[in-house]
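User: Show me a protein chain along with its predicted structure.
Assistant: Here is one chain, sequence first, then structure tokens.
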Amino acid sequence: MTKSFGRYQLDAGRPWVMGILNLTPDSFSDGGLIGGVDQAVVRAEALRQQGADILDIGGESTRPGARAVSPEEEARRVLPVLKALQYLRLPLSLDSRRPAVVAAALDIGIDMVNDVTGLRDPGMRALLPSIQQTGSTVCVMHMQGDPQTMQQSPCYDDVVAEVFGFLRSRQQDLIDNGFDAYQVFLDPGFGFGKTLAQNQALMHALPSLAHHHQVLVGLSRKSMIGALLGRPTDPHDRLAGSLAAALYAAQQGARIVRVHDVQETVDALRVWQGLS
């Protein structure tokens, strides 16, 4: 059994693994590793061979405290790579909050608009008819504040009610704008304006969201993993923790897990399913 995802059909019988392809010099874990189109193609090929179902391509770091880049610089980083990767015949997600970049990417060919600001920008909202007409999926993420300030004492009265309420309202808005429910994914935004305890509360409550909605979860190598492991300094020392988090997210109902370590995640999910 398959399910539509943009221009492609994916196996509906298991969670999908989204491989991260960062084209940034300053991402928290893998910034600066890819310096141009050729290196991006080599990395994308490797992720496909490792079993990635989807590639998520980003040209702006949204880690806590990250410096914003101009739409022109982001476009310079991502658009040539998107063009080069069309031959892979693999779903491509664009991780961007910039309407101009998204508009240009839609002309090239993408299968998801992954917006950390929840498609609230007026310019992004103006693109909704174009996104819908292409058949692209969208991912709405929750973030309190912005990347520069989001981890400065995040505060909620009820983090689960507020975050899940925001996500549900954004999905309804998209449906009202012509999207089908299968085109919309919801991301609680772990680590985006949340403390460790708030992240834990959202994860424990995830089944109540995933029961009725398609959920994308990004936990790979994040600081909450380091905090739980007691090793907060090196993102590369979080593989085992990231795998445990991905498996737990899948068990809680996540449809997509967004990860740096594709091969290891694919293997872990395969064994988990084989033993379930």
